[in-house]
Amino acid sequence: MAKVTFIEHNGIPHTVEIAIGKTVMEAAVNNNVRGIDADCGGECACATCHVYIEPAWLDKIGLPADGSQEASMLSFAAVTQPDSRLSCQIVMTAELDGLVVRMPEGQH
Amino acid sequence: MNAPVNYQPSDDAWSMPLDQIDVSDPMLYQTDTYYPYFERLRREDPVHYRKGGMYGDFWSVTKFKDIMTVETHPEIYSSEAKLGGISITDRPMKFRRSSFISMDPPRHDEQRKVVSPIVAPANLQNMSGIIRERVCRVLDGLPRNETFDWVERVSIELTTLMLTTLFDFPEDERSKLTYWSDCATADVNAGGIVDSEEKRLEILTEALRTFTGMWHERAARPPGYDLISMLAHGEATRNLVNDPMEFLGNLTLLIVGGNDTTRNSMSGGLWALCKNPDEYRKLYADPSLVTSLVPEIIRWQSPIVHMRRTALADAELGGKQIKAGDKVCMWYISGNRDEDTIDRPNDFIVDRARPRHHLSFGFGVHRCVGNRLAEMQLIILWEEILKRFPAIELVEEPKRLYSNFIHGITEMKVRIPG
Question: What's the complex ipTM?
Fold first, then answer.
């Protein structure tokens, strides 16, 4: 298991556990963390599991490749930042144990 | 020979030859009898080819997962207007109007991004006050102990008022928006005013003239927060007015997208709750369920029956071989009832665990721009209904639209006990 902390837009943190190999999106949805909608269920097709990656973790996680489906879907999301990712595309590894992500004001 | 006494038209769905099933027949939606046809296709032939159907040769994609595959591969499954666009109806070439829904990336992306800020989170918050005020006014004006048409008094009124805000359009001329919206999507065989593409264009040319005037006014003023001003000032769209048919294509997209779909969810949701009184009681006892009620309504109604793509290359889909140039229809109305993805899909359940996992908004790059605005309007409507009406009675079954594209309810007689 690995820990992930989701910080709501209003600053409230939620730390949850998820099995290695599952996605960050699943960590939120399976633990009823509000604010990650994940309408498409992890297909990288709706951009409603949008998160901002905390700077300390960005190097490990990286950004989506130009021209990828994730980059394309993110380009339609509201309130994106340079550190935006879709959490359904981040698979938990032992290295990511303790990951901290922040949530946007809405999932659009 | 006499027909069997207990004959049901839907019996055909299970006995007719598979290759004769034609789910494009708009009558199936007008008579609300489409269910068994899709149930059989999902079970026996989920990616189904119909040769010589009412709307030509086409593939039907009926399962949730296969629809998702088509949605996420725009490089194979094109929305391009010139190839046929997004509807099963192949209009004559000169009537194929481009708009960002019927474009592929990258042009689609550039135009879509001009208008999408209107539904950004902060803007939605700004609009919620006026939406609630109108909902309260409309609901408080409804008669008691008297039969009335919910579609006209509530669904059309609220969605058309929403459009006046989005376009900054004069409120007292709002019935034109409903008229243009209905004309834009009417099936020419439905028996209405729009009986040809020429007639449709004639009516929509009035819309084009009106909006062209508004465009020039707004282009001359600083940018404002309405769709016309956004298009007039947007980098990718500031010359759109010089391409009248593409301007008209985008106008009808925004009018229909912001109107027809939510209108029919407002009607279809009430219908579903009238048919499921236990669910209404559950909801009435716990109004916080509106946030799961609303996506369930949108799944249940499936306001867009299908979206069409055209294959740009040969591809395999669900074990079938699609050929370049083939017409491929994703039947959202069927994928939303797919038992392999949705638990108890034929039950209307106001407190589903994952109610937003439905196809009604589409997925991928063409996913509905206004989906969160649509949900917000419906949430406010139901919050205010629940504050007022312990019961709303269905007086007669709704009348439905002759269309295989818009899943429409044209009239629904109801009564609110006093």
Answer: 0.93
